[in-house]
Structures are given as structure tokens and as C-alpha cells.
Amino acid sequence: MSSNLINPVLALPDLHLGPDWAVHSTGAPTTVSSHAARTFAVTPVRGGPAALVRVHRVAHHPLSACYPYGAHDLVLGLALAEEGSRGRLLASRLLRAVVPALFAADPRCRRVVAAPDESDTVMQGVWEEGGFSRVTEADLGDASVVLFTVEPPDLAGMSTALDDMPH
């Protein structure tokens, strides 16, 4: 039996953000520390600072040890070219465009997660402003992080109350 059948690496989605954003892939999917990743340089079309967006599958990322992930769940990383309020505003707008694009590119994705460093309160605020919810803290091999998640609207709005479950 092929090892690809046991632990397949699902193709990472392209990032299509619409007319307000210029998106350039920094190359083909790469393997960084044995984790498949895609990196995109993103800038607002009307001008402004750039950002790098990195996308991983949770299954092939250290965060896989932090929660019971789905095979199509994604880890999102964000690096800003500009700090301060202008960079935060860009990041918030960008995340609100990136997340729906990722869910549209992979309809089987049930969660996008982010894990800023536990001491980086600025980036934690960026993730919250971008629509992510703080879930918990986690210790990875080399860092302590805060786990943030966002789910597709149809999944996030689904009731989990026992009385609402079909019988």
C-alpha cells in the first residue's frame, strides 16, 4: 500500500480575492520543515502595504497536535510589511477577504486556524479584528501560541444543543 493513501497531502487552494487585491503566489507549494505550504504576496489594488499570507493543511503542521482537526482544515499565517494602525487595518480587511476565499476554494474545509505567539498581543488583536475567535493556548515544540479559529457561516451558525439534533 502506498504511503500516499495513508497520509495524503491534499492540494492547497489558490487564493482568489477579487478586484480589490493583487495576489501573487511566491511559487509552487513548498515543503518547509516537512510541512506543505503555499505563500502569497498580497497588496491592495489602490495602494498600501503588502502582506504575506501562508497557507498550510493542519494535518501537516505542528498545530495538528492541538485539536481534533478535519482533513481539509487550514492553518493561516500572516506577515505584515507595515506595523501600527495602518498595518492592522490592512490585516483586518485582508483576513475578511482571505477566509471566505479559502472556504470557497475548498468547500470541505470546516475550520481555518491561526496561532500567533502567546506574547504577541498585537497579532492576537489582528486575528480577532479579522473575524477569528480565540479558543485556547497551546504549547508547540518551540513556542507557546494562542489558537484562533473561524468556521464557514453555515457551520458556525449550526446549533449543537441536544434538543436541536435530529432524532
UniProtKB/TrEMBL annotation:
GO molecular function: N-acyltransferase activity
Keywords, alphabetical: Transferase
Protein name as it appears in the record: Acetyltransferase
Xref: Gene3D superfamilies: 3.40.630.30
PANTHER family: LYSINE N-ACYLTRANSFERASE C17G9.06C-RELATED
InterPro entries: Acyl_CoA_acyltransferase
Signal peptide: none
Native source organism of the sequence: Streptomyces spongiae
Lineage, top ranks: Bacteria, Bacillati, Actinomycetota, Actinomycetes, Kitasatosporales
